[in-house]
Amino acid sequence: MRRVLVLALVSLMAPVVTLAAPQDDVTAATRAWAEAYNSRDPQKIQALYAPDAVFWGTSSPTLRDTPALIGEYFKNSPSQPNARVELGDFKVRVWGDTAASTGSYTFTDMRDGQTVRRPARFSFVFHKQNGRWMIVDHHSSSVPASPR
Question: Which of 37, 25, 36 is nearest to 93 (CA)?
Fold first, then answer.
C-alpha cells in the first residue's frame, strides 16, 4: 500500500507533458504563414512552402509551381514595409500527414497616406514532411464584391 501511495504522489508531482494535436499544429502553421508574410522577408515566407508546392496568388494570373516562381511572387515584400495580413476565421481539417486550412484574411497596405484593405479567401494544403507541416498547395483569391 505504501508503494502505491508513493507512486501516486510521484506521478502527481511529475511535470505534465502534452503533445499538441495535429489540428493545433496546422493552426500554428497557418499563423506562421501570416507572421512570415508580416515580416516582409521573402525567404521566411518561401521557407514555409514545400519544394513541389503550387501557389495561386491573390494578385497574380500565374500558377506558381516551382520554388523560383513562388519566390518571385514574394520578392518585392521588403519594398512594401507597411503591407500586412490579418487572419480571419479559418477551419482546419487533418487527415494523417495531410491537412487543409481554409478561411479568410485581410491584406492591408498604405497608398497615398491611406490604409487600403483587401479582403481575401485562402486555402492552404499542408503535408507533414520530416515532422514539419509544409505548404504544398496555396490558393488565395479576393473576396468578390457583394451583389447589388
Answer: 25
Longest distance between any two alpha carbons in the chain, whole Å: 77
Cα–Cα distance for residue pair 119/144, rounded to 1 Å: 9
Which one, of 115, 111, 134, lies nearest residue 30 by Cα? 134
Domains defined along the chain, listed by start: 21-142 (3.10.450.50)
Q: What pTM was computed for the model?
A: 0.84
Query: Among all chains, which residue has been given the C-alpha cell 497608398?
Result: 111
Q: What share of the chain is helix, strand, coil (3-state, %, to 5)?
A: 30, 45, 25
Q: What is the pLDDT of residues 70-111, one digit of tens each?
A: 999 999 999 999 999 999 999 999 999 999 999 999 999 999
